[in-house]
Design brief:
Length: about 120
């Protein structure tokens, strides 16, 4: 079993920056994909950004150019740098890790709250 622990959330004003961290209980090198999701009140959880084992990244349109996903294999941690925050970014942010071998498994963190005031 793998534990993922997010941190770095908080209450900020529009335009501010936050950096979220997701620390894994074991090496992240074997995860095929690491991702950040978010869930706003009364909305479905949505994908925000992904980073593959090779380092390729993907962002949804609403955060492209403002958010940056990265990882530090030595620290077993994936990050989400969020700049230019907007009220619509308010949500609980979750980290997810996907392994494909020896069998496909997904692991989720418990989430960290990000609130952006206008």
């Amino acid at each position: 079993q793998v534990q993922l622990v997010e941190s770095g959330g908080g209450l900020v004003q529009t335009g501010a920056s936050l950096k979220l961290s997701c620390a894994a209980s074991r090496s992240i090198v074997l995860f095929e994909v690491l991702a950040w999701y978010r869930q706003a009140p009364s909305k479905q959880r949505e994908l925000v950004a992904t980073i593959t084992r090779s380092g390729s990244t993907f962002y949804i349109g609403s955060v492209k150019g403002r958010f940056t996903i990265s990882k530090d294999n030595a620290k077993n941690t994936v990050f989400l740098q969020m700049d230019g925050l907007k009220p619509e970014d308010t949500a609980v942010y979750y980290c997810k890790a996907v392994q494909q071998v020896p069998q496909r498994r997904e692991y989720w963190g418990q989430g960290t709250q990000v609130t952006v005031s206008s």
